[in-house]
Amino acid sequence: MPDPALVAKTPKGPLPVVAPDGRKAWEVYARPFADDGQRPLIAVLLSGVGLSQSATKTAIQQLPGQVTLAFAAYAPNVDRQIAEARAAGHEVMLQLPMEPVNYPASDPGPHTLLTSLTATENIDRMEFILSRFAGYVGVTTYMGSRFTTSLDHMRPVMSALNQRGLLFLDGDAVEGSVTRSLSRELGLPSVVNHRVLDRQASRAAIDTYLIELEQLAKAEGVAIGLGHPFPVTIERVTQWAPTLKEKGIALAPISAAIKRQQAR
């Protein structure tokens, strides 16, 4: 159950807050992970979970608990699905829709954060999204290739996320994104995705990206991969995960990858 000290009741719905004793959602709701500080870490996020009941059930039941699941804010029965995901050991995040470069041809949906809106309007939209459910560690971008390159628009959004005790994952990490520099400036726990695992949803392509993640983790200490609840993605990640131990690599939730980077 969500910690009541981390939730404020508002007209929009429950919103995450930092507890009076300083506890934050990104730490309280994190999947426990014993980091020895030695092995390279790979964190995998499955984004867009919740829209398909069958795909969501398969992801929750088949994927290792170390895989973080990001739910779409508009998913039906999302509270129940998140409870099931957390009961199965998965860390949970929320998708935050942001304006892409080809908006409105590509439309992330209602309450999308837009560069044509004021900071107040975007915060209002974000709070509506954040109020859809509780128990998540933070947010990941959904689209956002234009919005994440605007310093004036990203600053109030990331500042608000930080004040609410959440973490942030830049899922697209496009050239010109300001999320990395803003995170350092604000002290926001944040990480940038390195590979989209199923940009080509085939076994061969996904396996290639997973190997690239291994190489990156060994070189940099931490690597992040993002996939979607496609049957082939779930299959390949499920079969790949048990091979990491013998390679000296640990599969970790997103929060653990961020903590490792903070410890550097």
- How confident overall, as mean pLDDT? 96
The CATH superfamily appears as Glycoside hydrolase/deacetylase
Q: Helix fraction? A: 25-40%
H/E series: EEHEHEHEHEHEHEEHEHEH
CATH class: Alpha Beta
User: What is the quaternary state of this protein?
Assistant: single chain
Number of helices: 9
CATH domain topology: TIM Barrel
Give the N-terminus to C-terminus distance in angstroms.
Answer: 33 Å
Could you provide a short overview of the structure?
The protein has 264 residues and is α/β, with parallel strands linked by helices. The protein is 36% helix and 20% strand. The chain has helices spanning 25-28, 53-62, 78-87, 119-130, 151-163, 179-186, 203-220, 231-240, 254-263; strands at residues 7-10, 13-16, 41-49, 68-71, 92-98, 138-143, 167-170, 190-192, 195-196, 222-227, 250-252.
SSE inventory with pairings:
Layout: E1 7-10, E2 13-16, H1 25-28, E3 41-49, H2 53-62, E4 68-71, H3 78-87, E5 92-98, H4 119-130, E6 138-143, H5 151-163, E7 167-170, H6 179-186, E8 190-192, E9 195-196, H7 203-220, E10 222-227, H8 231-240, E11 250-252, H9 254-263
Parallel strand pairs: 3-4, 3-10, 3-11, 4-5, 5-6, 6-7, 7-8, 9-10
Antiparallel strand pairs: 1-2
